[in-house]
Amino acid sequence: MKPFLFIILSSSIALAAPENLDETIVKASTSPTLTQATLEQDRLDLAKIPGGTETIDAERFLTGRTSTFADTFALSPGVVAQSRFGSDEARISIRGSGLQRTFHGRGIRVMQDGIPLNLADGGFDMQAIDPIAASHINIWRGGNALSRGSTTLGGAIDYLSHTGRSAPGFSARIEAGSYDYLRTRLAGGYTEGSKDLYYSLSHASQSGFRDHAEQSAQRLFSNFGIQLREDLETRFYVAAIHTDSELPGSLTKAELEANPRQADNSIFGAVNFDNRRDFELFRVANKTTLRDGDNTWDFYSAWTYKDLDHPITPFAGVIDQLSNDLATGINFSNNSELAGRENEFRSGLSFTYGNTNNAVFLNTAGSRGALRNRDDQTATNLEAFFENRHHLTDELSLTAALSAAYSTRENDRDFSNPVAVPPFYTPPAPGALTTYDDSFTNIAPSLGLMHELNDIQYFMGISRSFEPPSFSEAVTANIARDAQTANTLELGSRGTRSFAKWDATFFYSMVKDELLTITDPLTLVSTTRNADDTIHYGIELGTEIDLAGNAWNDVTPANRFVFRSAYTYGNFKFDNDLTYGDNKIAGLPPHLVRGELLWENEQGYYIGPTFEWVPVKSFIDHRNTFAADPYALLGFKFGRRVTNGFSWFVEVKNLTDEIYSATHGVVDNAGGVDQRQFLPGDGRSVFMGMEWKF
Length: 694
Description:
CATH superfamily: TonB-dependent receptor, beta-barrel domain
Oligomer: single chain
Radius of gyration: 24 Å
Number of helices: 5
Shape: globular
CATH class: Mainly Beta
Number of strands: 35
CATH architecture: Beta Barrel
């Protein structure tokens, strides 16, 4: 897509100097917008939900490097984010959603400003997101996301953008460090009367800790809002992304321990076949909000264009995809009292359509060879939901929600070249289809109770989830024939008491037809099957304790000594399976602890250690015969973060230079033998950053 740089430059110029914003105001503005909720508004809104939720202030992760999902969600209980090789691409899972996937996420609805970023088939790209362009991030774990149109086991994550009103003026940020890491960002916010504009233009690159792991990405995120009347506002969003990623591949445990910086140099490995994942993405969207007393209407629409070039193993070939996705929807909310008590009603209807021209070529030593096959893939989703929250008493509220979905997945193979087959090619398994037209229908209810008194909440809820398979569930064929469903029970508490804050949730999910991804140990081709019965249960615990004894509700003290931690426990297992019995489902470590211990003062200075601990092994196969080892990482950071002016940080990661597997692939049966499934974590590294707001 050669015009991409032209789009970037022309969009930047157009946004930087619009004709109708000749006279700009760059002083702080507190006037709200109808289309974009503030951090405080979202924090209050999510706190009303009787289940696991969180609102992340971007200031939390901007105190250090902001390169990976692991950086962004390091202190988020319940969110397991593990970088594949220090890049945007990661394994991300909530409550075991897509727990075997180390690429191209699924099982979570990812949104930008309330509008889905997922392609219509449910998959999403980590590189399509830029956390440093966000004001804050909202997380709904599991069935708590039904009110955001998500029916998946994992729930939803929403990145909320700055606007010209919330972030007026200019800012420049630069991060640099080990392995030629560089991330820069220029941003600006403008207001003039009823109009406002915000843009963020960033560049990120690194040579990588490992060989053949060079990364480069350029991203533009912008929005332009017009308040047409006091009760009516429309906002346009434009995003343009160019990203190139070398893939170093997986190692055996022996190779990892001998030299974690090496790439897969095996005969069919990443280096010899130049494994990469490059794409360009362009997205335009609009949200229009109408407020009439206690009633609010939100209308949205979006179009996403994506051009993917993805050489991988000779068995999977070179994947070339051209995608066009459309999304449109309407949400309605009402906050009128019912029977003299506080009541909140929300409903929505959405439709998404996606078409992908999927072509696969031979990978001949890194070059594109003959066309092997070509598929026309179409996915649609029609979804509706309602949610009602009613206060039975001043302290007790009842939340009921219901979501209904009808989805289709159609794959038409219009070309297949019987000559263009790689060596040792594995044909589709028996029962697999390369041409199919499937439809999925489901209803997902949710019911929850919450008691709140003196800033302490206790809640419990039950919900159902539903997820059809995406096209990328199998490279060579569609094997997963059924949608994944689950019934989940959760209970927990969150609150503030003096010097302590906490957010604790226990969940138990009974899953049916789980989408089970398995990688062939020879070809490294992934296929997905439906498991029978599986069980997911765990604990999501976040704490924030001021060891100096200062209460969190007091005026900001001169000094704090804060211990923050996020503990995620997940036990995911088969339930009397004919093949696996009651074995653990491979993919994620059962325990993950991340945290920091920082001295902070009222001038914005901070200093202290950070840590990550996986105390037990993580199986790489469903037969539970071979595993990644436990590990513990120690880091350190210090700096200063201020609202306006000059901020800076220095951060050291993996201070002890631990050799470990950050994440790994999944096979059916390793037979107790070392497999090429391990992805090494980065070694000792140092990063520095500066940001200037003016």
